[in-house]
Amino acid sequence: MELDLHIHTNLYSGCSNIAPEKLLLKARDAGLDGIAITEHGIRWPDEKIKLLNEKSGLGNFTVIPGQEVACYSESGRFQGEFLVFGYPRSLGSSRSVQQVADLVHAAGGVLIAAHPFKRMKTGNGFYGCGHEASDLPIDGLEVEHPSYDAESRSMARGVMQSMKIAGIGSSDAHDLRQVGRYRTFFERNVTTAEMLCEEIRCRRLKALGEFDRR
Question: Which domains does the chain have, with CATH numbers?
Fold first, then answer.
């Protein structure tokens, strides 16, 4: 089963031009079995997810509500962005990584470092948690992402292996053409957020990049 776990729509993410009503059909056409919608700091209500699925007419296509949360330390230092699954409410983008992790883990959810080794356009930093990932209470990280070069990919996989956590692949799509370019293969069927969290914790998955699908 293949899922794209990092997608933004224009309903709640102003940086995206993906219309939700076109998303599911595009995802299916890209060969995906499901997606996660991860708006910035906002979790789609369950009733809207259900309505979106019904309107698509795809039946058993998996749509999981998640969110992408920007985290900041108490001093205001940017700590990176993180994908949240299994938490029932929107978290915004004003908490520290530890605060978000405490809330998410108490609810049975998981925390994934989004594009930790995505390079800044200027300077030597990362638009993500970078090497600090190894010291954070995360359950996984993106090891396949469209912004990565070979070194970024190698660093991400190194963290995954040293921490013994899940490594996912996802498109971070903001445009329909990007949907499904990077994805995650799951050994078992995943139809709910709870099932997704369990598979991530058990690491029964594999990140797929564009090359892996050729």
Answer: 2-213 (3.20.20.140)
